[in-house]
Amino acid sequence: MEKLLNLDSIRLLLGNRSAILGLIVIAFVIIVAIFAPYIAPYGPNDQNLLKRLSAPNQEHLLGTDGLGRDILSRIIYGSRISLSVGAISVGVGVLVAIPLGLLAGYGGGLLDDIIMRIVDVMLSFPSILLALVVISILGPGLFNVMIAIGIWSIPLFTRMVRGEVLSTKEEVYIEAARSIGRSKFTIAIRHILPNCFAPIMVLATLRFASAILSAAALSFLGLGAQPPTADWGRMLSQGRQYLRTAWWFSTFPGLAIMFTVLGFNLLGDGLRDSFDPRMR
Questions:
Q1: Domains within the chain, CATH numbers bracketed
Q2: What phi-psi label fits residue 14: left (phi over 0), alpha (psi between -120 and 50 degrees) or beta?
Q3: What is the pLDDT at residue 96?
Q4: How far is 7 from 257, CA to CA, in rounded Å?
Q5: Which terminus, N or C, of the chain has the lesser number of Cβ atoms within 10 Å?
Q6: What is the pLDDT of residue 197?
Q7: Is 126 exposed, middle or buried (0-12, 13-18, 19+ CB in 10 A)?
């Protein structure tokens, strides 16, 4: 039954045009990030002060910035930063939240109360404020941004995993596993955790988009990737003083952020619609 359900879910996903569009956008960004040295026409930090703030032309398709660096090349290399931030921060959230959610949902009792009260405290902080608190402790920098966004993701994944565990542990096959003497650890890992993979995948895809957007916001404030690293949020911040005279400086990095985030959101919505029977 589960295999048929999975096949049905995959068919629904492949029939979802928005999800396929999102997948195409994501695949394009990933390919660009992987082959950045071969695609970018210039190095991300190559300067030509004689051509600073040049409008888009045949030599520089998206123009140049205030130091004469090619914006297209910096956007291409910036995709590596954005995808790395999303992958590492979501990975931190998932790896920490899975054991916490299993302990809270399957263990119950005092342990559940302690874990969920900590989660509630973390969720009471606005997301960007929690990230700022973590960065103020660790200091600015790209790695610290990844950790901050990862910590911010932990309570969301923990609550979701706990909810899935609470609903799954009352199923008949879980009772059957208990009746034949399976240990709690075996039941949690082999029977309960696999049922959490689909919702984890959906939330991870949506959180990937939020992580990219949050990293761009923190870099815009000067707390993320530091110069001369090519970072989309940093490029937006540097180009804001030239909005009237060099609109391309901020516009193209902003479009890169928009389309990448949109791609992950479209794919995440498609995964949710396909793997959640209540959405069909």
A1: 2-43+63-279 (1.10.3720.10)
A2: alpha
A3: 92
A4: 33
A5: N
A6: 84
A7: exposed
pLDDT digits (tens, 9 = 90+) for 146-174: 888 888 889 999 999 988 888 887 777 77
Please tell me the distance from the alpha carbon of residue 63 to that of residue 53, in angstroms, as a whole number.
Answer: 7
Tokens read off for 240? 């804001």
Quote the pLDDT of residue 111.
Answer: 87
Q: How far apart are the C-alpha atoms of 277 and 259, rounded to whole Å?
A: 28
Single pTM value for the model: 0.87
**Residue 80, pLDDT score:** 93
Q: How far apart are the first and last CA of the chain?
A: 17
